[in-house]
Amino acid sequence: xxxxxxxxxxxLLVTSIATVLFIFTKPALAxxxxxxxxxxxxxxxxxxxxxxIEYDLAKLHARAQIxxxxxxxNAFTVRMIDNDRRTVFRFPGxxxxxxxxxxxxxxxxxxRVGAVFDSEQNAKFEVYxxxxxxxxxGNLDGAPPLSCSIxxxxxxEAGIDFAPTNARYVVYRWTREKKTKSPFQVxxxxxxxxxxxxxxxxxxxxxxxxxxxxxNFDFSNKLGTLAxxxxxxxxxx
Length: 237
Hints:
- This protein is mainly β and 237 residues long.
- It has one domain (53-222): Jelly Rolls (Sandwich).
- 10% of the residues lie in helices and 33% in strands.
- Strands 1, 2, 3, 4, 5, 6, 7, 8, 9 and 10 form a 10-stranded antiparallel β-sheet that branches.
- A hairpin with a 2-residue loop joins strand 7 and strand 8.
- Mean pLDDT is 74; it is low at 20-24, 28-32, 35-49 and 208-237.
């Protein structure tokens, strides 16, 4: 039998003694109680989006009606509130202030207005919210206007958002720089309101409704119309 070198033997002997001492001197672990406190199980929190329904009060199906236009054929004014951008109303080219007054079916808070119309350089578009018709329908000097910004990506569209404001009449007015031989055309005007789903007005109970949280870009969604008309250029019917 081959003997180990003395130095190696001493090392093994010391290691063995240290192991034995550790086993006998190691403090015993405390027994884990059977009724140990378990981690708290928190209930899963479900966050629901607070959806509101956005609808257009300035539409035929909302029982809106146009009670005044500054010029043009009254028989065709309905084209501006029929939710169809393919039909247009023509103001004569000599009218430098084409004006429309829409009477809403109910006095409800409006938070957005807009329109689709012929684009003209430097034309200004303003909207007035009023509760009573002025004696002179063409005179709106006493009412503060809402100046609507033109959508540069879609120069024939304009609108503005604002704090909810109650109104019975919505006045849409353009200021044009010069007269033209061709008429000035308006396809649609809109006035948006919104409520919780359980507060839908009866006139919209059977209509197609858009939720305000929808994100698909479409001008009809941006103005809150209840249906999505096709995205086509404004043309004569």
